[in-house]
């Protein structure tokens, strides 16, 4: 902002993120491109008030983000809620295979959803750590943004900020219709259009 001759206090930027990040995510969702049926699911740690919390993330075989979910717990219930959220997303395909790490909570959640008829019977859960390298590498962009901040002060502010990080990353990956990977001009135009702002 300073490069453009505008003096803006960092707390103003913070308030903008808190207000607009969830709204940007909500407005972008209908424009997401369809993803593949091969899922990679994993969680990464985010510090909130000096406590570790868990950001569940899923990507497809091409590295496109399927969905994300922030939780204070790392258990089967949190995984079930995340998988339900991901299955409900309009841009995701029913999973043919879900690759996860050796966390024992994944089979519990997977089997419960399959028994309830939420996951298709042909879906397979694979607990092979090296198959999840793609999602673990994808966590790096989150870590690069959260580490310098030294953690968040509340669950709500963390979640709103993470929504902004995730949707901007999806945009950069070229996951939104009509905007290619690396098309910064297209990204700016799309955001302006979504918020009804003239460019």
TrEMBL record:
Keyword Signal: no
BP-aspect Gene Ontology terms: DNA integration; DNA recombination; transposition
SUPFAM superfamilies: Ribonuclease H-like
Pfam families xrefs: DDE_Tnp_IS240 (PF13610)
Keyword Nucleotide-binding: no
Entry-linked InterPro entries: DDE_dom, Integrase_cat-core, IS_Transposase, RNaseH-like_sf, Transpos_IS6
Source organism, top-level taxon: Bacteria
Integrase catalytic domain sequence ranges: 26-189
Molecular function in Gene Ontology: DNA binding
Keywords: DNA recombination, DNA-binding, Transposition
Entries under PANTHER family matching the protein: BLL1675 PROTEIN
Protein name, per record: IS6 family transposase
Lineage: Bacteria, Bacillati, Chloroflexota, Ktedonobacteria, Ktedonobacterales
């Amino acid at each position: 902002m300073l490069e453009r001759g505008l003096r803006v206090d960092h707390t103003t930027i913070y308030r903008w993120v808190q207000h607009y990040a969830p709204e940007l995510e909500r407005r972008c969702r209908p424009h997401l491109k369809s993803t593949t049926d091969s899922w990679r699911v994993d969680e990464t740690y985010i510090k909130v008030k000096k406590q570790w919390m868990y950001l569940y993330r899923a990507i497809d075989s091409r590295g496109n983000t399927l969905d994300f979910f922030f939780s204070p717990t790392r258990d089967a219930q949190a995984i079930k809620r995340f998988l339900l959220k991901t299955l409900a997303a309009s841009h995701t395909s029913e999973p043919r295979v879900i690759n996860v790490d050796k966390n024992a909570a994944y089979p519990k959640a997977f089997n419960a959803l399959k028994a309830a008829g939420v996951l298709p019977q042909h879906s397979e859960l694979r607990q092979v750590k090296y198959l999840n390298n793609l999602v673990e590498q994808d966590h790096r962009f989150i870590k690069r943004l959260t580490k310098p901040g030294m953690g968040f002060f509340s669950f709500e502010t963390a979640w709103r900020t993470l929504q902004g990080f995730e949707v901007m990353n999806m945009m950069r990956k070229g996951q939104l219709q009509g905007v290619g990977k690396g098309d910064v001009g297209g990204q700016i135009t799309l955001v302006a259009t979504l918020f009804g702002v003239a460019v």
